[in-house]
Amino acid sequence: MRLFDTLRVRKEAFRSAEPGKVKMFVCGPTVQDYIHVGHARTYLFYDMLARYLSYLGYEVEFVVNITDIDEGIVKGAESAGTSVGRFASKYGQAFMSDMEALRIGSVTAYDKVSERVPEMISQVEGLVAKGIGYRVGGSVYFSVDRFPRFGRLSHQTRYELSLRPLEISESKRNQTDFSLWRTGGSGEQKWDSPWGRGTPGWHVQDTAVSYARFGAQYDIHGGARELVYPHHEAEIAQMEALTGLKPMVRYWVHTGLLTQHREKMAKSKGNALHARDALEDFGPDAMRLCFLSMHHLKDAEFSERALREWRDIHLGLRERLRLVEPADGKRESPETERFLAMMNDDLQAGQAIKVLRAAVRDLGRDRGKAARMRGLARAASSILGVALLEDGA
Asked: Would residue 368 count as lying in a domain?
């Protein structure tokens, strides 16, 4: 299998660090609202990736963090007239419910970042001790000048980085330096630290989870393309500067964004459809086929019309596959080989689905083909997470 790696900007043959095992981390949601279909598209892709790796025989450890430390959560709780803990818990549970309804069952662990604050403090202490983190009052910043490789993942020069300052502050040494620990915070989201009461920076929240689960190095890190800079860039800088080991991640696998009217789907833009509402109207099979048919690297325009069309396509596939008898499952199938060839080439699920649709289109006229289709249907069901056969496969 080959995967497109953001850092190397090319497809690379996949080889895990430990033969037969894969460690994968994907950035989860900030639990301040229900996830929308753009989020669903991202998590469905990584579920398919994990499913395919399992299909190939790997033992996959797939971790998703749940960001329950965020200023937006505090503001949301205040607007709702409830505690931060209850507010975050409500949307955290809703996220888990939506993931289950989407049939995303490959995740082996969901990790709340609020339960990793001691690890965050330890990482910040280590960076300060190395002279890479520096204190300004009750805040601590990462000095990007001490990490020459900063910018490699997002392919930006130092000059280009200087045009994208982070958290503008006169007290910082460099405006591209990012927060490791911030003074202040509010209410329930404040913790004691060597630098006073405060709250951890965004980026160290994720490295605290990934390090606790996998150590300093692992196989795959995923997330939407918009997280490449500064979030994933900062994760690399923190972990590699702290441990001295590189690469932190062997493959950086990102997804494109879902758009509507050519704008990124977002609650703030008023163009977001909650995943749970789409599930109620169209069901998980249509959503999985629709979003997995989009190439994961590209931005894609969303429409409810497409979901309706994929719902009809799914029903048509199931109807045609009723002609396939259980005893046909072990027949060799060139169609299955073509399906898997598409998956091996950077998970081109859209092309693989075309192979599946073409293979079942004329089952009624080609009984020889029908005798080969059960193996293809089982493989597609397992990898795509779509119910295709009457026996539940």
From this structure: yes
